[in-house]
Design brief:
Shape: globular
Helix content: 40-55%
Radius of gyration: 17 Å
Structural class: alpha/beta
Number of strands: 10
Largest sheet: 6 strands, mixed
Number of helices: 11
């Protein structure tokens, strides 16, 4: 399996991508696992959903290009991008608090996955960045649109348009990272969640609905769909295919 889902004693659900040998890159099985975890998190016995990666090198390196490289046309790319955007939107509007427990470096789609969570906790010393621009594409799972919704204009534009990998301190400064920890990931996460999890579930859900209504009224889902379609057009470009071939070639040589 490419993931695990565990119910923790404190009342939250822990989803872990278990593909450390692939820097916890997302494949179709991980996509299925995320859908399963989001569905399980709707159970009244669950008060929060935490998403993390296996090991200490990477939280998530985005989509696994060794799997997705077969998607060449915009129509083929659209199916994958659209399905993943629906998963991230479902995560975004889940009526429970959601936490990205960033245990290692995260890039590209991994940053999109984290953006869809309510809180982002990152280990001291990690780096992260929306590097899609250097792959000749944009964010394509809805993460760019979500980032623009959550961060100030200047900060979100800088992160997306420069396509650089940044220090965790800089990411906290611009508002992408909520908390930096230095202890074990689970201990840090539970410490961060301790007070929140003592609050009645109905209260948590009522507060979360304030943001969900705002996103629904601003037609966020439709704006995410436009992001998906724009990315699918860029996906079939010669520049992106050239990047993918170079990436696959490098992986083959390693």
């Amino acid at each position: 399996m490419s993931y695990t889902i565990e119910k923790q004693d404190m009342g939250y659900l822990l989803f872990t991508i278990t593909r450390s040998e692939k820097r916890n890159a997302i494949n179709y099985q991980v996509m299925e696992g995320l859908m399963e975890a989001i569905s399980m998190a709707e159970d009244p016995g669950v008060k929060a959903l935490v998403i993390t990666g296996e090991g200490d090198n990477a939280f998530c390196s985005g989509g696994d290009l060794t799997v997705f490289h077969q998607l060449e046309t915009k129509e083929e790319a659209y199916v994958m991008l659209s399905n993943m955007s629906k998963i991230l939107y479902s995560l975004l509007i889940l009526k429970k608090p959601t936490i990205a427990l960033i245990n290692g470096t995260t890039v590209g789609g991994g940053c999109e996955l984290a953006a869809a969570c309510d809180f982002r906790l990152a280990r001291e010393g990690i780096k992260a960045g929306f590097v899609q621009g250097k792959q000749a594409i944009t964010t394509g799972w809805g993460g760019g649109t979500i980032l623009a919704e959550k961060l100030p204009v200047g900060s979100s534009m800088k992160l997306l348009m420069e396509a650089e990998i940044h220090s965790v301190e800089f990411l906290q400064e611009v508002g992408y990272i909520d908390h930096i920890y230095s202890s074990s990931p689970i201990a840090a996460c539970e410490d961060y969640l301790e007070k929140l999890l003592t609050i009645d579930l109905k209260v948590l859900e009522s507060y979360k609905m304030m943001w969900i209504r705002k996103w629904e009224e601003s037609r966020l889902r439709e704006r995410i769909e436009e992001e998906v379609r724009n990315c699918s057009v860029l996906w079939e470009s010669e520049s992106h295919h050239k990047y993918v071939k170079s990436f696959i070639s490098k992986k083959t040589q390693d």
